[in-house]
Amino acid sequence: MSRQRASLLAIAIVTLALTPAPALADPTPQAGKTAKTAKRAKTVDCEQVKCIALTFDDGPGKYAGTLLDTLKKYDAKATFFLEGQYVKSRPSYVKRMAKEGHELGNHSYTHPNFTTIEPAAIRSEIKKTQDAVKKAAGVEPKILRPPYGLTDLQVTEIAAEAGMPIILWTAGSRDWDTKNVDAIKKQTLAVAQPDGIILMHDWVKQTVDAMPSIVKTLQGRGYHLVKVSDIAKKENLQPGDVFPLPEGWQN
Ligand SMILES: [Zn+2]
Fold it and tell me: What is the pLDDT, as a whole number, of residue 17?
């Protein structure tokens, strides 16, 4: 399947007539109720401190274990937009992600372009992934990132039905393209900004190899590496909302 990042469909939409839904008070997956987990789940207020969210799509990839080791070593959190078929084949990584306080998102089951498939197929892709993550980690994702970041009015309506906001990104690491440790590090650090949401992939070995250096450098610049929902908290996102908004969009 093509991993090429397609450009966003610039479809201007007006406020969606969503059925009233409760605000997402806490979109963080409940990782478990042990004292150990609770201690780790410290609160970060991104309105007070400098935050950035590293997000890893299409996984869990085969290097996820090494990535989790790095995140743990530096006490950094990340968000994983998981592909259901790999959740099914690598459930232990998903369980570990939840247990170690990372955020889990839904990235479809087989990575189709949601803007070109039937509504029933979109619903099935989302549901099968929710079920796979629940089975693997005991929690369900509360956020959706459609494959390639491609969305339209229909996709947002289905996300609203499923109770999830759509999370895109502010910048990409271009890791799928360069597959080079130095290039990934350089690009990621160049696009890093407060409240940035960075697109990366844990199936790219060079990304995982670059991570210790990226994390150390960002922390050295004063960044807290947080979950996407920590950054989105002030937006009070509703199911079906898109964040960050592509140009010309309105929630
Ligand atoms: Zn993807």
Answer: 29
**pLDDT grade for 246, boundaries at 50, 70 and 90:** confident
Ligand 1 centroid–CA 107 distance in Å is: 7
131 assigned to active site: no
Q: How many angstroms separate the alpha carbon of residue 48 from the centre of ligand 1?
A: 31
Three-state secondary-structure class, residue 18: coil
DSSP class of 125:
H
pLDDT, tens only, 180-238: 999 999 999 999 999 999 999 999 999 999 999 999 999 999 999 999 999 999 999 99
Following DSSP, what letter does each residue of 203-243 receive, concatenated?
T-HHHHHHHHHHHHHHHHTT-EE--HHHHHGGG---TT-EE
Active site residue 57: yes
Show Cβ contacts of residue 165 under 8 Å, excluding neighbours closer than 6 positions: 24, 27, 143, 144, 159, 232, 237, 238, 239, 240, 241, 242, 243
- Give ion ligand 1 contacts, CB < 5 A: 57-58, 147
Chosen CATH of 45-243 out of 3.30.479.30, 3.20.20.370, 2.20.28.90, 3.30.930.10: 3.20.20.370
| Residue reference for tokens 């509703």 | 238
Average pLDDT, the chain: 87
